[in-house]
Amino acid sequence: MGGYSFYPDKPISQYKKSDTGLIVSIILMWGIGICALFVCSSSYCGKVFGDELLLVKRQLFASAVGLGGLLFFAFAPLSTIRRMLPLIMLVCVLLLLATFVPALNEERNGAKRWVKLPFFRFQPSELAKFAIILYLANFFDKYQRDRNIEERSVFPAVVVMSLFVILIFAERDFSTGLFLFLICLLLFFISGIKTLWLIPMAVIGIPALAMMIVWEPYRMERIAGYLHPEQFSQGVNYQTNASLRAIGAGGFWGQGIGNGLIKLNSIPEVQADYIFAGWTEAMGFVGVALYFIILCVFAYRAYKISINCPDRFGAIGTFGCISSIFFQSLANLAVVCGAIPSTGIPLPFFSAGGSSMIVTMSMCGFMINAAREDGDSGEGMIISESDDDDLEVLNEAGVYERL
What we know:
Elements: E1 4-5, H1 20-48, H2 54-75, H3 78-98, E2 105-108, E3 111-116, E4 121-122, H4 124-145, H5 155-170, H6 174-190, H7 198-215, H8 217-227, H9 238-250, H10 257-263, H11 275-308, H12 312-336, H13 354-372, E5 391-393, E6 400-402
Antiparallel strand pairs: 1-6, 2-3, 3-4, 5-6
Helix pairs in contact: 1-2, 1-10, 1-11, 2-13, 3-4, 4-5, 4-6, 4-12, 4-13, 5-6, 6-7, 6-12, 9-11, 10-11, 11-12, 12-13
């Protein structure tokens, strides 16, 4: 079975130089995220730390660092980003390895996911999402442009992906490792490689994932709690049940910011993975609808950029970045609503945590860059006359399928 590609075949003169809709949606997502963090953390921080704005201040600091990443990835030429990939990958691997060094790591609940940096703690697994997306985008671009494509192997990409996933699993960050693995599989699928490569990956990956779930008792407990919620209402399901009560209390208009701040304490660590439950209690259905509208606009504009970008590296990279942010958001919301077992995956732009904010904003910068790409770099998709017999135009957006 052959692969397929989704890159455009339209004149450069018709390509839009900027995407105001994407930029506005990014600003709105960040803005309501900061507002939600204030709503959900003020009472807790005031009682525990004596500073109601402590987590908001930390998030603003991370946002400032993330803005630097956004500007860099938005304005640096894609060719420059590609040349920096070896350095980015090396730094990411070193940070992942640093989580196993006692003097450098910080352990919480048996998990070693954080590295102590001079001014804040950083979670390398967040950076790994962005790094592996850029690596695979660069790899698959070169793969498709190789004249001897039938002799090329995707084994190097499989090895790099496996290294990242194994290191994250070794940190006892199962949810992030699994999510990264699924995003990589999605990029393998949309990049046009032979789908036969996915079979051995699935044959090895699925049993390995099942073994890791069985290996850790708390993971089995989460699954048991999901399947039999009534038996674990005061245990593993306590946070989920509190979340559902908060969502129900929100009603249509919400409890309001002032009133909501008092009741939000019923959800342990609401400012982290369950922050959307707090936002729903305070803002109600109106706040939920507002979030989903902005999220859908954000995803639509980014996916449109990935389809229309004349540079294959930018196209695949943008697809990977928006898929990571969008599907991670949906996964978090599913956990908050009790639709899937608890995962520990943060909500982008919302959950307290500088690492997620910095990486998310850097991804947004890359997507803005792809929207501005004019195709003059020479790195984009090149279709020779000899390729015409092998390609069939599927739609006006420039989708192709290799016959």
